[in-house]
Specification:
Shape: globular
Order of helices and strands: EEEHEEHEHHHEHEHEEHH
Radius of gyration: 18 Å
CATH architecture: 3-Layer(aba) Sandwich
Strand order of the largest sheet: 6-7-8-3-9-10
Structural class: alpha/beta
Distance between the termini: 36 Å
Strand content: 25-35%
């Protein structure tokens, strides 16, 4: 069996003396879409920050592609991972300028054919020169997603990327995620409150509850035959979101 891309062992993360994440073990496989579900405050966003090497765990070890994580992980390795947040943060520049921004920070340019291809996939070709701050919420999130993907990451972390969006925008974003995973083998970790989204996209689904990893399983088994009482309660809608 191939070595997991991420290996988390005895991870704890604490803020002001309060432990918000306590994961004994978690492996994330190369090329999979892993959905992380659970009530609000369960530690899902904290887990994403650790996977993105934005924070160092208070205890435990994160191994990424065979190398120990923060603080020793080289910049070149960290750049293999990028993140899309729930609320897109766009510059007061054009849509095109926003798409090219990340590459520009690395001293690279966005080729015109790549830009036009992404604008077409986004359904935003007619808005290329428009200020990103004039976009709708759904349009802005599509730009945020494409800005991450033009960096060609090997790992994409997504924190509620379609929260409060209409079905049209949800469909566009989910289609792009599915295509990038299937065509490029991109590994994705998706935090979502939308259990139907998890069922549509993820090969595996995990439940975080009170900072603990309660259950992780193939998505079909997770929703149809959970082994833990908390998972069954979550699937039935009995855990408060």
């Amino acid at each position: 069996m191939n070595q997991p891309l991420y290996q988390l062992e005895n991870i704890q993360q604490c803020y002001n003396g309060r432990c918000v994440l306590n994961i004994t073990q978690l492996n994330i496989q190369r090329g999979e879409i892993l959905a992380i579900v659970g009530p609000s405050g369960a530690g899902k966003s904290t887990l994403l920050r650790l996977l993105n090497f934005l924070e160092q765990p208070a205890q435990g070890q994160i191994v990424f592609d065979g190398q120990a994580g923060m603080p020793a992980l080289p910049l070149a390795q960290r750049r293999r991972v990028t993140m899309v947040f729930q609320r897109p943060i766009l510059l007061r520049r054009s849509v095109s300028a926003n798409l090219a921004f990340g590459l520009g920070l690395r001293g690279d340019k966005l080729p015109p054919d790549v830009e036009s291809g992404w604008l077409k996939r986004l359904g935003l070709a007619a808005l290329a020169r428009q200020s990103a701050h004039k976009l709708s919420a759904g349009e802005a999130q599509r730009v945020s997603l494409a800005r991450a993907l033009v960096m060609q990451p090997e790992v994409l972390l997504l924190d509620e990327p379609t929260a409060n969006l209409d079905p049209y925008n949800v469909s566009i974003i989910e289609t792009i995620l599915r295509e990038e995973n299937q065509n490029l083998g991109m590994t994705m970790v998706l935090v979502t409150h939308n259990i139907f989204q998890a069922q549509r996209l993820a090969q595996r689904t995990a439940l975080l509850w009170d900072g603990r990893l309660v259950e992780i399983a193939d998505t079909t088994a997770f929703f149809n035959a959970p082994t833990q009482a908390e998972t069954a309660a979550f699937v039935r809608g009995e855990l408060v979101y």
